[in-house]
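Example 3.2
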Amino acid sequence: MRIVDAQIHLWEGPDAPPHHARSPFTMETAVEAMTAAGVDRAINCPALWDADANAYAALAASTHPERFTTMGWFPLSPGGDASLVADAMAAPGAVGLRFVIVDPAEVARVASGELDWLWRAADERALPVALMVLPGDLPLIGGLAGRFPRMRLMVDHLGVLPFLTLPEAMAHLDDLLDLARHPNIAVKATGVPSMATDPYPFVSTHDALRRIHDAFGAERMFWGTDVTRMDRTWGECVTMFVDHLPWLTGRDLELVMGDAVTAWLDRR
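Structure, written as tokens:
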């Protein structure tokens, strides 16, 4: 079974937010840890806190093309245009884009249509675009999916904020499940252990995972870790899905653990 992590961050700089590892997470560190955990590939979402992370992502993808692909980003400042998308997708290993839209000003630009140049360019290219939004803004993703049906959207972390635990972490579950009616929306089941209220294998999270799987199907539910903010091992993040979800077996397990995100990104 091919195991692909749907989201990690690589960076070399000295700074990181408090919910991530304080030291740099380099390609060499990642490859060693992936090998130990049995993870074949990882989708690198360049760290927002390191201004050089996009360049480092290109280096990682060039150095280890069998290990890393990239969903890069650029500032969503007023006056952007489709050339930013073209430039980002020309980078080595680029398979899509990823943005964090939690600042109220950026949320307003999405709602007003000011960023339609971005979504239109992604739609024209049928690009995968991953978005991290506040739980209350999940309907914005549904609106984008309806207006730009060729853009393949991915919801980061099941819409869960990094500091929340159950049950608060899943208070938005109905809104998340409602997005399943859009065939161009998938969800990343990344960072799941961080919302658990119990030790490995984090049974407190399993009911929500089952409901999300039932709504989106294995073709649109992607396992991953966001490993640098986990206080559990990469291997435990793998085996909680592989060994401890009795309803996730056979082809569905293969899809969730890597084949589905590979197909979504057209990296078969």
